[in-house]
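The freezer alarm interrupted the setup, so I double-checked each line after restarting. Inputs confirmed:
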Amino acid sequence: MEDDKLKDKEQEELRALLDTPDEGTFSDEDDQDNKGDQDEDKSSSEYDDTGDDTSSKNTKNNPEAGNGSEDNKDKAKSDTASGEEDEDKDNKDRWHGKSREEVIKAYESLEARIIALENKADSENKTDKDDTATDEKADEKTESDENEDNNPGIPSADELQKMTPTDFAKWVLGRIDEGVKRTIETQEKIRDAVHQEISDARKEHPLQDPDYRKMVLAIIDSASAKGTTIPLKDACSQVDSFLGKHKGQSENLSDEEKSRLKKAKAQVESGAGAPTQPDGSDAETKRIQKALAGSGSKSPLGGLGI
Amino acid sequence: MPYGPETTNKDGTLNEVGQKVERCVAQVMKDPNFKPKTGQDKKEAAIAVCKASIIRAEEVNKQLQK
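Predicted 3D structure, all chains:
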């Protein structure tokens, strides 16, 4: 009996061994498949039973079912992930089966290429920056020139925007001070020049005489009314010529007058002196007049040089 | 202040110098021979010339009266 029992046990074990596969993994998968089949059966039975609640239950079972966009995103993500994975695989394959020296050479060539690309990018950036800088400078120059031409001394709009109210007030006060200083300087210059001119003219012309001064001022005013400037000396010389008192001319005339006076004196002394007859004719006076009126007198006060 | 602070009264009207400058500017503007420097407005040049000559004349008048 015991032998029979043992034989049965051995046979059962052998059958069990024969029924089971060689590797244990297959048994798990089979179990999962079986479980899935069972789930599907369950869900199908639920669809059949519930009817209208299928959609809700379906969403419950598959919460991502209603969102197509999320599905697409997931798909895209999975695509990109797969792409990256492919690239990684390619990179891995790239170095696969190569010797150490070949890998080093390839790496060095890659580094050289990267450096060359960086240098190119830097040079392009520099040229772009230089171009933009020159353009900006040119624009600034033209703008500043225009500003200077239109409003000399007024800062540009950017500078004004940067200014604080106190800075602007300081700038305005500075401008006013500059203007006041400039006007004072010009007034002082004019005053000094006029003072020097008057002191020079007083040496040669009788500017202390009020009538003479009025005439000089009248000439200067008439010239200034026309927008012209006449020097004081010229005005004085004009007045002198008008009065016939030009210095050089008066000296010459006085010499002529002196010579004429000498002639007249000689004629008078030689016999044409005092009239013999107290009620004498006008012959003597006519003779003296002829002697004196040899060249004629141009002086407004007579020919005696008085 | 059409011609500057020295040509106006406190109420903004032209003083004697301002009136002189105005007459002078009108006369200079009529002159066909008057040509300002390049890039300068004719009226501005006329105002500058008239102001300079009239202010100088006024200064000569002041100093000779002393």
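Quick read of the result. The mean pLDDT of chain B is 86.
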